[in-house]
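Service request form, structural biology core

Requester: graduate student, group of Dr. S.
Request type: structure prediction, single chain
Budget code: on file
Notes: please return the result as structure tokens.

Sequence provided:
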Amino acid sequence: MKTQAEPRLHPRKRRPLVTCALAALLGLVGAVGCGGKTATLGGETNWLKTCTEASDCGSGDCLCGVCTQECSKSSGCDDHSDAICKTKNSSSIGAQCGATSPERDTLSGICLPECSQDNDCASRQSCVAGACVFQAGSGGNGGGGEPTGPGDPPGARDVPNPTGDCAATTNGAGTEHSPDPTDTYLPDCALELEREYYRVFVTQADVAYMIPRPDNHPTFASVCTNPEAPFAIVLNRYDLCQKEAFSSSQVDAVNAMAPSDALAIAHFLHERLVFVATENGVNPGARAEDILEACKSDEAFRTGPMSRRCDFEIASEQSGGRDDIGWQHTGEQGIALADKLNELYGMANADLCQRLANDAHMTLQSVIEENRGPCTNDDDCVSVADSSTCHDGCGAVAAMSNLTELEAAKERLASEQCGGWERAECGPVIIRPCIQPLPAACVAGICQQVSPE
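Core staff response, request fulfilled:
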């Protein structure tokens, strides 16, 4: 039987089961067989048992696939001394009920066992935002995985993973998003990072989508220049080489990819992923759960420039609620966040330096490509250096009228990608072997390099 993946992927790493002593202390039902007795909480032996209807629960209610009871934020869990009330907007309820569950919208909250880490919870449960919830596919309404008993949600199933047989332990939900409870999270078994940023989910129709969606991603530009390349063919199936905003029909298509294609695209993006500090924060945008992990695991980060954001994330986890706040970070916060995220995802040393240099190269190439026109004659075109303080190039051409934009782009690289490169103490730039650049000429209104006649 396979289970669902957790955001930090060590595919074959298993967490230890809760001990008998800890189970007795927490009063969790069914945690382990300790002396042939079943642990209880508040005297209710059916507490947090999987269910399909109220009659399965004795004195409790069947809510989101488990035996518990409804509560409000401030009260309602008095019968369960080790329980906490999680409101419907909390990520705990999102993991247990599913983001789009109609039942979730009718509840003010439900009582769940309180925890601070996975080891505080019973077997087949995970600690999500301070509460124990059933792991996806192991009972409850988390969705995905192979059915394990009558309490599993409709649609729970085992979906073949084209990348391998790695074990996974959650439904892939994040603080700011949750999959549909009937969708299955497929991890990338070949992932070389410590965490997944791009996540693939398979629907009941056996088609896949990604969170975040990959359309208009700038990293594809380097591949799309050669439409005959095998991966470019994959991208073009879903119009992912297109630079313009997607139409609704194109969005529908990219949300219905073949699972193997979606995983290949996610793997490609992970191979090139690097977090870069900008004047307004970090690019790509940081996941709330990653920020929370950084705040909880690193005291220096917790008390540094990101302290206010850390206070918010930690308080949100503890309260089980989350206000929608559009965070905009300062440049100083962006530096702290980018460096910590790169560390959290497992990028370091030569790998981090290479990712930053590659990202600088890709970014500048994209800007140059957008500024090769218009032109009316050869005098409108000029040869330019496609290098920065953290990468070397072999030269390109651009329209003379766009040189100001190119210089501005190089200044951004110097403070963003190359700023991270310098903070990582990456050393001297590797000089690429290049042939003599071809002269610039205006061809059909676009500046190009052409061979002299």
